[in-house]
């Protein structure tokens, strides 16, 4: 009897282990995010996604990060400076820590483009691409908060001094700490 004869497939003994374990943890995190925001979790169901665990209620979308980054935190911050033309859903709240951050937004009507695309006509696909391009156009005229050339302080959204120095911290919302690269007169 070799060593491999004693290896037990845990998923046969404990069916809840494996892929469903991440779903259970993701569901618990989605429920926690909704509770933190004070929103109901009625009809909470999982949606397919490649990069996040996505959970839907009738009115909200909860996205839970699966990797050790603050990707959803960055998205939440950037969503606040996107022009309305982009069509980003209303941010309700974001929270969590590295590797377990989450984002709650309003649920928009419709189906994901990736699901509709295979059944769309060529004309409908062209229209979808045109709409995406139109939605992205306003973003090309703006600098991201904290990037070189930014016109507002990423800490508090007030205009910095002309030399693009860090915010003075005079705003009650600002800590005076600039996030991202700073530029100095040269």
Radius of gyration, in Å, reads 22 Å
- From the spread of the alpha carbons, the general shape counts as globular
Number of strands: 5
**What is the mean pLDDT?**
73
Characterize the largest beta sheet: strand count, sense, and whether it forms a barrel: 5 strands, antiparallel
Structural class of the helices, strands and pairings? alpha+beta
Topology order in helix (H) and strand (E) letters: HHEEEHEEHH
Helix content: 25-40%
**Are there runs of 5+ residues with pLDDT below 50, and where?**
1-6, 8-22, 150-186
How far apart lie the N and C ends? 75 Å
Strand residue content: 5-15%
* Sheet with most strands: strand arrangement: 1-2-3-5-4
Please tally the helical runs, counting DSSP H or I stretches of 4 or more residues.
Answer: 5
Description:
It is a single chain. The chain is an alpha+beta fold and 186 residues long. The protein is 30% helix and 13% strand. The chain is built from five helices and five strands, in the order ααβββαββαα. The protein has helices at 10-13, 19-37, 71-79, 113-116, 122-140; strands at 45-47, 52-56, 60-65, 91-95, 102-106. The protein has a five-stranded antiparallel beta sheet with strand order 1-2-3-5-4, with helices on both faces. A hairpin with a 6-residue loop joins strand 4 and strand 5. The radius of gyration is 22 Å and the shape is globular.
């Amino acid at each position: 009897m070799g060593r491999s004869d004693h290896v037990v497939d845990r998923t046969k003994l404990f069916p809840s282990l494996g892929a469903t374990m991440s779903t259970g943890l993701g569901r618990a995190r989605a429920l926690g995010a909704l509770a933190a925001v004070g929103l109901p979790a009625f009809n909470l169901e999982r949606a397919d996604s490649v990069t996040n665990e996505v959970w839907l209620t009738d009115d909200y979308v909860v996205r839970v990060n699966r990797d050790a980054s603050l990707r959803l935190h960055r998205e939440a911050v950037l969503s606040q400076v996107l022009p309305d033309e982009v069509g980003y859903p209303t941010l309700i709240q974001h929270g969590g820590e590295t590797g377990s951050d989450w984002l709650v937004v309003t649920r928009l009507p419709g189906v994901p483009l990736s699901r509709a695309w295979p059944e769309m006509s060529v004309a409908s696909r062209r229209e979808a691409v045109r709409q995406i391009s139109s939605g992205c156009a306003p973003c090309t005229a703006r600098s991201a908060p904290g990037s070189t050339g930014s016109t507002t302080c990423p800490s508090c959204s007030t205009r910095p001094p002309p030399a693009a120095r860090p915010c003075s911290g005079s705003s009650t919302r600002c800590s005076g700490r600039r996030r991202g690269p700073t530029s100095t007169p040269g």
